[in-house]
Amino acid sequence: MQFFRVYLSKSYLIKLFVQKKLIPESLHLCCLEMNIMVELMNNSSTNETDDCYPSAHPEKMVFVGLQLAVILIGIPSNIFFLFVSYRLIRQKNELGVYLFNLAFSDLLFITCLPVWVQFCLYDRWLHGKTMCFICVFLLFTHFYTSAMLLSCIAVNRYLAIVYPLKFCTFRQRKTAVSMSIAAWIFTVVFNAMTVHPESVYDEEELICLDLFPLPEKQKIANVARFVVGFLIPALVVGFCYWQICSDVKRNQMLGSVERRHVFRLLGCIMLTLNLCFGPVHIMMVLRVLLEVCPYPNWLFIGYKVCALLAMLNCLADPLLYCFMSRTGQASALNVLLILRRKWKKECQKEMEQQNSQILGTATVPITETTLRTEFSTDHL
Fold first, then answer.
1. Domain that holds residue 240
2. C-alpha to C-alpha distance for 99 and 152, rounded to whole angstroms
3. Dist CA 186 CA 197 (whole Å)
4. Structural domain total, the chain
5. Which of 155, 203, 290, 369 is the most exposed place for a label (fewest CB within 10 A)?
6. In this structure, are 157 and 89 located in the same domain?
7. pLDDT-derived band of residue 201, with 50, 70 and 90 as boundaries?
């Protein structure tokens, strides 16, 4: 309707100019044709940009509920995970360094997750361009520090089992600290090269990260993220798992319990890496290849589901290492015993205070009058 109103108003003005002989009649038809072409092009471009952003879907409430569950469960579990890994570090266990950094990365991401919940709920980013850039930067920092640290854990277990005497220096706590610092530096530099404020925020539509269609810079960044952030760590973890499995099968010194623990730990690392980070990176590449306006509905929902799976990594890390490895189980049990002892001591203190208050009110204070009465009765 807006197109016809504009078109009629312009044609009416041109007719007035023709009637008053301000412009020749031959130019009248040319002007009408030009107006029709321009209005049709403008109308098609506006419809194209509108179709690129899918309308609101009812399943977004499911996404909001799951994100809130990640916040409510992820904060206490990762704080507990942080404390367990700190005790491992104090025991000079190099695995605790990687676990501590994993827990810190999870907590860093959970701090900005309420903003993403609000964006998912209202379908509008209400915090500006700078906040969008910071949240996207922290999101990908969490993704790739977790992937790098999982790779470091797999390499650490590979060297400990396949080459137990040859690479002892690479399995020290100092080496784990330096590798963790290198993982953080690499991730920050990589995100500085691939995350740009112009390619992650749309000021007109108030959209953060989920820009449709993808800008050219974002397409190149998605391919780089798939190769560097997922494919290389997945290949490293897969190689370590394959070598460890073949070595454990040949080694008859290891018992069935030790083999089970090794396979369980590495299998959970592969499952976390492939299940949490694999689908979202595959969807990034599919968006580069298949994204055409109007936006496919299955691609939109699939991308949202895969992004939610990546966020669930915050819950997978504490469960993975506190309960799937023997050192993690022992440390978690020690922490629980310490907390239980502290709780018992506090309960005993409260009981003693209550008993002292009750005894203090029940006892009768001894005064001079009572002593005199007792002395007089004794003499009688």
1. 56-333
2. 10
3. 20
4. 2
5. 369
6. yes
7. confident
17 burial (CB, 10 Å; 0-12 / 13-18 / 19+) is: middle
Residue 310 and residue 278 in contact, taking contact as beta carbons nearer than 8 Å: no
In a domain, 348, yes or no: no
Tell me what the pLDDT averaged over the chain comes to. Answer: 75
Please work out, in degrees rounded to the nearest 5, the angle formed at the alpha carbon of residue 41 by the alpha carbons of 35 and 47.
130
| pLDDT value for 335 | 58
Please give the single-letter amino acid code of residue 14.
I
Cα-to-chain-centroid distance, residue 167: 33
At residue 87, does pLDDT exceed 70? yes
Distances (CA, A) of 176 to 94, 148, 158: 6, 12, 14
d(C-alpha 144, C-alpha 105), whole Å: 10
Q: How confident is the model at residue 42 (pLDDT cuts 50, 70, 90)?
A: very low
Per-residue burial over 201-234, b = 16 or more CB atoms within 10 Å of its CB, e = otherwise: bbeebbbbbbbbbbeeebbebbeebbebbbeebb
Q: What angle do CA 334, 148, 247 make, to 5 degrees?
A: 75
- The identity of residue 221, as a single letter, is A
Report the percent of the chain where pLDDT is more than 90: 20
Query: Does 161 lie in the same domain as 27?
Result: no
Q: Which helix (H) or strand (E) holds 129?
A: helix 128-162
Cα atoms in the Cβ-side hemisphere of radius 13 Å centred on 79: 7
The answer to whether 189 touches 272, Cβ cutoff 8 Å, is no
More confident residue, 366 or 317: 317
Question: Does 373 fall in a domain?
Answer: no
Rounded Cα–Cα distance for residues 120 and 114 (Å) = 10
pLDDT attached to residue 338: 63
List, in order, residues 6 or more apart from 316 with CB less than 8 Å away: 272, 276
pTM: 0.72
User: Would you state the pLDDT for residue 321?
Assistant: 64
Q: Verify cis geometry, omega within 30 degrees of 0, for the bond prior to 294.
A: yes
DSSP at 202: E
**Span of 92-101, 162-171, 172-181 with lowest mean pLDDT:** 162-171
User: Cβ(248)–Cβ(161) under 8 Å?
Assistant: yes
Residues sharing a CB contact under 8 Å with residue 250, sequence separation 6 or more, in sequence order: none
Distance, in Å, from the CA atom of 262 to the CA atom of 254, rounded to the nearest integer, reads 10
For the chain, how far is it from start to end, CA to CA, in angstroms? 119
